[in-house]
């Protein structure tokens, strides 16, 4: 058998490290503490009340800087979503203004009240306006944030994650970021430090968006920083994975079918070969 050269082995090692995220020094240095989420695991689900509280936080706090460009108002009433009625969605959409896709009779674009089929509008007219309002930093869209900010767990855990439907590592990271601020006062450069932020020395342009009693809940849930963070992150997990519950249910059915199918194949094999002499 031909033995691989040292250079070939080194190249393979680099490929493995890159694919699994082990080569990311910042990711390996950041310790993300695992949290408990209702949507975690193969049987995870979204808590409607928590999604509604999370949406309240987005609407009252986050929407001032961050958009949800991939979420339509009508999605809030989808199965497994926030459970809003058609009338509630219409009333909510009417609170926003969007630029109509079609020009008027004079060829001019115009703004109108949003309708259920419209998507959440950006709080800024364009990226330059967003940067100008945020000291040069561009606030990211939050539609896919819970998935895009997942920190790779490296080999061999990424293999385990594929089979256990490990979805919560992105939310774990966001929770660490929101609750890890060192102070609500900026440094000399107008920046802040969050010990949960995946960046050089934890320096981040965003001021602490949440604190105790930032939002007043109407259902009696304690309005703590930790609760606020978990609620809005759960909502962002829904925006990133709106069909998560359906996908997990389908995955469970597929696995069950494969187990039964494998059993039938085994019994068929035994029956076919039972009368064959060795």
Please outline what is shown here:
The chain is mainly alpha-helical and 278 residues long. Helices cover 42% and strands 4% of the residues. The chain is built from 10 helices and 4 strands; from the N terminus they run H-H-H-H-E-E-H-H-H-H-E-E-H-H.
What does the model show?
The chain has 278 residues and is mainly α. It has a domain at 16-69 and 146-267: Cytochrome c-like domain (Cytochrome Bc1 Complex, Chain D, domain 2, Orthogonal Bundle), CATH 1.10.760. The protein has 10 helices and 4 strands, in the order ααααββααααββαα. The protein has helices at 6-20, 25-29, 48-60, 86-93, 127-133, 145-148, 157-164, 169-179, 225-240, 244-273; strands at 97-99, 111-113, 192-193, 203-204. A two-stranded antiparallel ribbon has the order 1-2. A two-stranded antiparallel sheet has the order 3-4. α3 packs across α9 and α8 runs antiparallel to α9.
């Amino acid at each position: 058998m031909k033995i691989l050269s040292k250079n070939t082995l080194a190249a393979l090692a680099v490929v493995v490290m890159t694919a699994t995220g082990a080569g990311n020094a910042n990711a390996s240095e950041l310790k993300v503490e695992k949290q408990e989420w209702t949507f975690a695991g193969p049987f995870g689900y979204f808590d409607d009340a928590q999604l509604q509280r999370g949406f309240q936080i987005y609407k009252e706090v986050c929407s001032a800087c961050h958009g949800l460009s991939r979420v339509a108002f009508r999605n809030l009433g989808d199965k497994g979503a926030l459970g809003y009625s058609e009338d509630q969605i219409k009333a909510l959409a009417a609170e926003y203004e969007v630029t109509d896709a079609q020009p008027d009779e004079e060829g001019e674009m115009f703004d109108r009240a949003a309708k259920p089929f419209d998507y959440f509008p950006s709080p800024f007219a364009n990226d330059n306006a967003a940067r100008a309002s945020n000291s040069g930093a561009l606030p990211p869209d939050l539609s896919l944030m819970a998935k895009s900010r997942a920190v790779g767990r490296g080999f061999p855990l990424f293999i385990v994650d594929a089979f256990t439907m490990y979805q919560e590592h992105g939310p774990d990271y966001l929770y660490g970021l929101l609750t890890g601020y060192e102070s609500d006062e900026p440094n000399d450069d107008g920046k802040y430090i969050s010990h949960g932020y995946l960046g050089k020395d934890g320096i981040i342009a965003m001021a602490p968006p949440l604190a105790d009693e930032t939002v007043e809940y109407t259902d009696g849930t304690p309005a703590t920083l930790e609760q606020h963070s978990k609620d809005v992150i759960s909502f962002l997990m829904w925006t990133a994975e709106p069909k998560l519950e359906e996908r997990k249910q389908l995955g469970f059915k597929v696995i069950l079918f494969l187990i039964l199918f494998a059993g039938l194949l085994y019994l068929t094999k035994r029956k076919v070969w039972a009368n064959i002499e060795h």
